[in-house]
Fold:
Amino acid sequence: MLRSLKIVRVAVAASCVIVGTLSTNLLTSHAAEQPAAKASAQQHQKSVDSAINYLLTKGQADDGSFSNQTGGGVTAICTTALLRNGRSPNDPAVARALKYLEGLAREDGGIYAENSTVKNYETALAIVCLKEANSGGKYDKLIAKADKFVKGIQWDEGEGQTKSSFNYGGAGYGKKNRPDLSNTSFLMEALIAAGNGPEDEAVKKALIFVSRCQNLETEHNTSPHAAKVNDGGFYYTVANNGESFAGTEADGALRSYGSMSYAGLKSMIYAGLKKDDPRVKAAISFLRKNYSVEANPGLGDMGLFYYYHTMAKTLHVLGDDVFVDDKGVEHDWRAEITASLASRQAADGSWTNKNNRWLESDPNLATGYSLLVLSYCKK
Structure:
């Protein structure tokens, strides 16, 4: 039971969940920030080298795992980060981590810890990791089986859902968990890593759910919440009458917030939507108004490193070297994010969030996220 509770806690950490209400003004307070400090290439490399040294000398256990008391999720995050920052699958430390993940492969195709209650979350992260390490097709079979597994627990006809259901197309932590945007974005990344494209049925189904988590009324979103805020941002889930962990307005409107808005936009791009699609245009508009490299808009320091990760990866996928905010200020987002991370890095090379909710106080989790961020910030 204790192990299951810990696994749930780290999954919630990755989802950046916050309970409570926030002033609407907090959501837009970061739009007025002055242009952030910019990092040099030397500073970027120094941060990367220090972080890798921390993970390999202090973060990794003898069995190759990272924070294995929480399941395989943190190990997958840290190993992917090492691979994306130049470490080879044959590097001894990386090879041990990959062996640990291989040992979590199950007969049903999933890759998760024993008694896990977050099987979709763990398996999706493992697929992305194994794809990074898949030299010579070594992990083709594992990835294919895991791809089938996550598709099998996606909320669709197999779970008795129709397209009119607000659960449809989404993914939760596991088969019985109601779907949410964070886990659906993990699913989308896993589907793409496994070789699926926009025409894949699972990707198309996921797009239906993602579109309904956006505060934007369109032909793709006629949920009761769609028109109340209508700012183009995203919230946590449209399922179960909707939920936003940035809080609600007096009329029950669900507030958009930073990390989920980047996750939603990224998922739409993976699903093949272009910049001229109204959903994409509205999401970008929201993010221009709430550009920040200092806080997670709407949540402050809660889930900050998850926010950095979704922000950097989304802007990387979007493909623009400069992001222009709604004030017309041009941001070299790679340099600005790198500088913000460097200012938060500890002397031993690690990162931790002083706000200890959702296990971002775990230096392995926060450092894994940060290394992933830096891989997208390298020019």
